[in-house]
User: Fold this.
Amino acid sequence: MDFNVRKLAADAGIFFSRAVQFTEEKFGQAERTELDAHFENLLSRADCTKNWTEKIYRQTEVLLQPNPGARIEEFLYEKLERKVPPRATNGEILGQYMLEAGKEFGAETPYGSTLIQVADCQRRLGGAEREFLQTSSIGFLTPLRNFLEGDWRTISKERKLLENLRLDLDACKARLKKAKAAETKAAAVPDFLETRPRNYVLSASASAAEHELRVAQTEFDRQAEVTRLLVEGISSTHVNHLRCLREFVEGQAIYYNQCNQYMQDLQKELGRTCTSSSVGESDPADPTAVLTLNSPSPLETDVLQIEEVQPPASGTRNAKVLYDYTAADSSEISLRADEVITVYHMPGMDSDWLIGERGNQKGKVPVTYLELLS
Assistant:
């Protein structure tokens, strides 16, 4: 018990000494030990790294999971050290709704069959999103969080200890300065009645202050070296975060390429479905419809007949190709993104298609792949 009381008293004395030193420094009444410029730059660089890493981490969380409620739920599961239950992505939920609606309306109807086709695409988009979220969380967010919760906490702890030792060192310097001043004053104005006892006490006080200063200086130098080594490790942190950033960008590129491919495939599939349905929905009882079914137009036959189609006297326009397009059959033409071709519409032709010409090549092109130019 006596030991605890003495320890508490000693701790209280140290705390009071630090508080006094800190207050006097703020009011400019005490000197402060300054770190060297290189060390200060390292500390400033460490603070900058921490601040921007925290901002990037928080905003990446928002990018990957915009729902704040879901983020809080994941945070609670993580703190409880429990596995986060699987959650369907928005694309997967939309795809499920479209699939159920398509079955309800009937897979044999145009709307129902289209809903089922789009539902499958949404399901694949949702799966690609899920994979991207997982890889980004493991490869990018986790290293950033490990730095903030691990390395930076260690650096902060050692920096706080260094600051406390600096306050102790400066307090020892102040006490030694006061002891030296008192000793000098006593020597200048001696008291003949108590010269020897008083000088002896002042000399002993100065010696004790010098010893405390040497101990404080040694502890401060040792802690400064430890802190310096930690903040110099920020360069290694930058290298690690750079590698993680490149992996994040690579994963993002793969994800968007997958989404683009899925949407292009869906557009092609819907374009072919739309063409076939426009023919299949004709009334078989109508003699004209039967004639149309039995007599395919030149636009729906082989390449030779497509090449025999002549453009109208007026109505041709230039169009820019938005995406790469691969011809599904010999009646179509394959195109590259960003090239400019000549297009026109033939009477009786489906409005979702145009005739495209590029040099001596000619064929059908989906309108959705084109941007008409003035």
